[in-house]
Amino acid sequence: MLRKVLLLAAAVVVLALVAGTIYVRSRLDPERVRQTLEQQASAALGQPVHIERAALTLWPRAGVDLTGTTVGEPALLTLAESSISTSMRALFSRQVVDAEILINDSTIDLPGLLAAIDRLGVASGSADAPPAGGLQVVSVRRIAFEDVRLQAGPHIATVQLESSLDGDRLTVDSARIVSDGSTMSMKGVLESVAARRGRLEIDAETLNLDGLLAFAQQLASRASSSPAATAPVSSDLTVAVTAREGQAAGVRFQQLATTIRAVDEGIRFEPFAMDLFGGRLQGTLAVDAASTAPGLRLTAAVERIDMTQVTAFAGQPGSVTGTLSGEMTMTGSGAAPHEALAAASGRGRVVVTDGTVKGLQVVRPIVLAFGKPDLAQPADGGEAFSRMAAEFTIARGVVTFQSLTFDSRDVELRGQGTLALNGARLDIAADAKLSRELTAQAGRDLVRYAAADGQVTVPATVTGTVEQPSLGVDVGSLAQRAVTNEIKRQTGDAIRGLLNRRKK
């Protein structure tokens, strides 16, 4: 008897499960789900949505697996594989509660998607409101990306992501991003996805700031010009960044630390610091990323920069050695950061200590001009200096030196002039003053005709290129100085003679 009861109970359970499954599938028919999702998503996003296949899952949670989902024509969102699961009871109440969203092997046109999100918020009156007649997303306990490609123009970032969504608040537990020479991990919170407001932290193994800025420029310009973006969205995103190495404006750096703030006006790196060329750079950088050719403003101070590394990077290896410190302010615009810097204008001051200028010989041309070969330097090598300093402005590819000083054991230069960056051509006029030691060896005639304040001082020019500079003696100015000195000498002799006669 007991056996019959158990068999009957088992049969009832089986029948109940079969009936329940038939009922659920009648309510959640895969083809009906696919069509419903297409219709509601298209209406909500204002873009055509196509789903190749929708497969239902009932255990352990109700859900749907989607294959071949595209949004937009042309597609701004292509999901090769995705799945959504949620509470069965909530689903029948037209709500998505405590859901899981998994996306694999997919491509997202990020500017277009953000514009669609903006449109969704405007159409519904609120970023948190559900589309009319659709499901209301209450909470998503897990959003996971596997090999998802975020695209902005020609730039692509491949993302692995673990996150959760509560209303409009997105918490990024972990993310790994590989893009344009960058490999980085990220975590943080977006207080509002629709408003793009929040704070993130990025720790990069390698970081290509040029690529990051280009990505941000594409993101801002394409999102703002998209027809789906019916109203502007005020952004305020702060990102704390550290990187062990990377590239900025074509320059390799190490140990970067900066805080990036993306707001409506653009992107600010304030402050930032990095090691480069053997020294340290610190400052602020502002980029107007919303324009076609973004504006850039850089304020920076540098210290302990190795000029050997700088000149090698500039394509003039060994032209100048020494250690550089200084400060500068630059503004410019261009399609890429290095282009903006190349066309920049600004001002600054720099000091280089304990170095040499390859090919530059200052003393030799002067003493040879006065027939003193015994004082001439060897023809090979360059002029060593203890200190070289300049105050300058830069505009249209030309550096103008308001003041330029060059101090060495044997000579001092004081002058002004220009450096054309295209070709690195020099055009400098200066006074070259021999040291008192060399002046004492120069002979009475040279001192007599070329001395100023007791030291031989010669008007000179520095021309040629940075790699092959050439110093010349300004003979015309020298002759004028000689005449002036001779007049002063003869006048002094006449006065002294007259005074001596009066004494007698």
Overview of the structural elements:
The model is unreliable at 2-24, 122-133 and 227-231 (pLDDT under 50). The protein is rod-shaped and about 105 Å long. The longest helix is centred in the last third of the chain and has 29 residues, at 475-503. The strands form two sheets. The protein has a 23-stranded mixed β-sheet that branches. The chain has a two-stranded parallel ribbon with strand order 4-6. The protein folds into two domains: 26-231, no CATH class; 354-503, no CATH class. It has 504 residues and is an alpha+beta fold. The protein contains eleven helices and 25 strands.
Report Rg: 37 Å
Major sheet attributes: 23 strands, mixed
Residue-averaged pLDDT = 75
Shape: rod-shaped
Count of β-strands: 25
**Which range does the strand content fall in?**
over 45%
Q: How is the quaternary structure best described?
A: single chain
| Percent in helix | 25-40%
* Number of self-contained structural domains: 2
